[in-house]
Automatic annotation (TrEMBL):
GO terms assigned for molecular function: actin filament binding
Keywords, alphabetical: Actin-binding, Repeat
Organism of provenance: Piaya cayana (Common squirrel cuckoo)
The organism's place on the tree of life at top rank: Eukaryota
Protein name per the record: NEBU protein
GO cellular component: Z disc
GO BP, sorted A to Z: cardiac muscle thin filament assembly
Amino acid sequence: YREAWDKDKTQVSMPSDTPVMLQSKVNALNISNKHYQKAWDEAKAKSYDLRADAIPIKHAKASRDIASEYKYKLDHEKQKGHYVGVPNAQADTKMQFALGIGKVQSELEYKRHFAKWKTQCHLPVDMLSIQSAKHGQSLVSDVDYRHYLHQWICLPDQNDIIHARKAYDLQSD
């Protein structure tokens, strides 16, 4: 029984026109080194052909562009101060004026933003209870109960002053 199974296992019969078999044949042709090198050998046999997208040509173009960009940047650095007529921004009065205006405007924006948000107060929930407890404590305490109106600086024998003093003391009590 086992020998029959081993023999049958090695003999696989599959029709050759199934998609899997056709794909495997195409893959074998693509992988084959002979077919891979065939087009290259034919091109070599005809003549020397150098296309525009060849690697050495691309390399030469890239190195030319890099050198050109380097020269441009070098010339730009030399001419940088000559465009304005001054070596830097601090030496030019117009640029100094523009920088000063920018600073003032920045301060105005900051102050405007600060004024907008300074009146908005965000208290946590427990902060309100603390404030109400402080207010209640000040109402209950006897510290601010009596308000003295003022100290008297006059002669003690003036009748109108004595009468006013008694009236103010009664009002205060």
